[in-house]
Amino acid sequence: MNKMLVNKKSKNHSSEIQIISLVGMMGAGKSKFGKTLSRKLGFKFYEIDEMIEESFQMSINNIFTKYGEKHFRSEEKKLIKLTVLNILKNKENSLISTGGGSFDNQYSRELLLSNSLVIWLNCPIEVLVKRIGNTKKRPMLKENVKDSLQKVFEKREIFYKTAHAVFDTSESPFEQITQQMIKYIKKCLFIKK
What CATH number has the domain bearing residue 144? Predict the structure, then answer.
């Protein structure tokens, strides 16, 4: 059975513009759920990692290699800020799929928490290892994928726990989790569709 826990600090977001942000580890399903949820809700979809790759005209792995993580994180923070501001300016209901490490940044975290409904997609490390496979595309992972993921998760968990809600994406069928998320989102954002 899928687990869905609501953070006690969660509040109903009844503003005119509805924004949903998905956070979580690589392999948790942010892109897959993001595309499906945005389509089903009629929201515009923003994939931060893809937007960064488009901006640099290179893969995230190559950006890390050429410019370093610090530069990448700085650009990621700027892009998240710009995306949220543009969504608010254009008044478009939107869903943002963030990069796995973007929620580490205090500014980005506070911006997303105060302007969107933040959902943490959580998944056990063992399942993430199976999903990720080839690590050459994942700059945060070293030789031992499981150990690397565990270290990254331990660093990020404290930040993920500040999300408004958490969904376990490891067990239930994709469509079932999607329906549970939609039900929760509609309740929180007062969507009547």
Answer: 3.40.50.300
